[in-house]
Design brief:
Blueprint (H helix, E strand, L loop, with lengths): L6 H6 L4 E5 L5 E4 L1 H7 L3 H4 L11 H18 L1 E10 L5 E12 L5 E10 L1 H41 L12 E7 L9 E7 L4 E9 L3 H17 L5 H15 L8 E11 L4 E9 L5 E3 L5 E3 L18 E6 L4 E5 L1 H4 L2 E3 L3 E2 L1 H10 L6 H15 L7 E7 L9
Antiparallel strand pairs: 1-2, 1-5, 3-4, 4-5, 6-17, 7-8, 8-9, 9-10, 10-13, 11-12, 11-14, 14-17, 15-16
Helix pairs in contact: 6-7
Length: 398
């Protein structure tokens, strides 16, 4: 059995439309496929209509202003998107390719045009457009939701910190909180407040973890330390240790590190007597006005909330005029400087702090805030800073 397919039959029943026009656009030949799309007879089309008569108004305009001039210039065009005008006003998206046929002398004889059904492609493009619009809407909604979440987290974060730093007679203070990610609540905290007419209390700490659970521990720590401030620093930390250990004992232990201390300024000498205790926290940095500096390591002081009973020994120092005491959380010293294993470290912090010896807590904290901002995405943990200083005496050159 043989299969025969004449050229004329292949032309007439091709999967695409074929037509030929004279140079003025009059249709001189059209295949059955195209006529079927148009819903018209051969007699009504061939010799009666121009190619542009098959197009929508917009298609006619585009043909005259773009397709026809380009065809005359290049001799062929390919893949032009147009729309055929069918019966009852129905539009059919098509892709059109045209080429001029020349005689042996190079004179144009007629224009051959192939018309491809683009309805499936149009439907695909429209579906793709709808999906893209839906994705854009979802992205905008997600951005709006994230912005609202960040605003809510920022308000909640602020509620865990003092609204303003109080004016402490005879003491200069400065504080700063750097958030590593606006999408997460941090666990760092600090505060300074009056105990009585002569003494002021201060603390700075860091709760393990992030998010709402850490924020809850932060709130407990702040209010517990404030309530225990009438006692000495060691007793205050012991109280917090007992509260955390009792409250979070079991499968989800919660703990924190903290430095808690008291200040007593002497207006006659300009000195500040400081007593503090530390529970597993990075050691405060003492910066003398003359440029000497030391980390004040605690003899004991385990993580707060881990053990039922812990010791938090006192450390007593005196700040002379121009001296400063810097408290910080490990988000600063453990910030990535370069690579995966290089930290900013305590040595770099001490080196920078020495440059601000004899200045003010505000100047020191501002310099450190610039350092933190420079870390960018390498800073993966929040950082709290609290600096306390004895004002320099007039005329001492500091």
């Amino acid at each position: 059995m043989s299969v025969e397919d004449s050229a004329e039959e292949a032309y007439e029943t091709a999967a695409c439309g074929h037509l030929s026009t004279s140079l003025d656009g009059t249709i001189v030949k059209a295949n059955a496929t195209l006529l079927g799309w148009l819903g018209q007879t051969r007699e009504a089309v061939v010799g009666q209509l121009r190619f542009t008569d098959l197009l929508t108004i917009g298609g006619k305009l585009y043909h005259e202003t773009h397709l026809a001039p380009l065809l005359q210039l290049q001799g062929e065009v390919s893949g032009v998107a147009l729309e055929l005008k069918l019966r009852d006003g129905v539009r059919m998206p098509v892709l059109v390719s045209s080429a001029i046929k020349y005689d042996d002398a190079g004179r144009p004889l007629l224009i051959r045009t192939t018309v491809f059904d683009a309805q499936i492609r149009r439907a695909y493009e429209e579906e793709l457009l709808r999906e893209r619009q839906a994705a854009d809407q979802a992205r905008r909604q997600a951005e709006q939701d994230r912005a609202r979440l960040q605003d809510a987290l920022a308000v909640l974060q602020e509620s865990l910190l003092p609204a303003t730093m109080p004016e402490v007679p005879g003491v200069r203070t400065a504080a700063y909180y750097h958030t590593a990610s606006p999408d997460q609540l941090g666990g760092d905290f600090y505060d300074i407040f009056a105990i009585d007419d002569e003494r002021w209390a201060f603390f700075l700490g860091d709760v393990c973890g992030k998010g709402p659970a850490a924020a809850a521990v932060t709130s407990v720590a702040r209010y517990t330390l404030r309530a225990a401030a009438m006692h000495d620093p060691a007793t205050a930390l012991n109280t917090l240790n007992a509260v955390l250990h009792e409250r979070y004992v079991g499968g989800d232990p919660r703990y924190c590190t903290a430095v808690f201390g008291t200040l007593r300024a002497d207006p006659a000498t300009g000195q500040i007597a400081v007593r503090f205790a530390s529970g597993g926290h990075p050691p405060p940095l003492l910066i003398r006005a003359d440029g000497r500096s030391d980390y004040l390591h605690s003899l004991d002081g385990t993580l707060i909330g881990i053990l039922p009973d812990s010791r938090f020994p006192h450390t007593d120092i005196t700040l002379e005029p121009g001296d400063q005491l810097l408290l910080y959380t490990d988000g600063l010293t453990e910030a990535r400087v370069d690579g995966k294993h290089d930290f900013y470290g305590s040595e770099a912090l001490q080196t920078l702090a020495i440059h601000y010896a004899g200045t003010s807590p505000a100047a020191l904290v501002e310099a450190l805030s610039d350092i933190l901002a420079g870390f960018g995405s390498r800073l993966t943990d929040d950082t709290a800073l609290l600096a306390l200083g004895a004002p320099s005496r007039p005329g001492n050159g500091l």
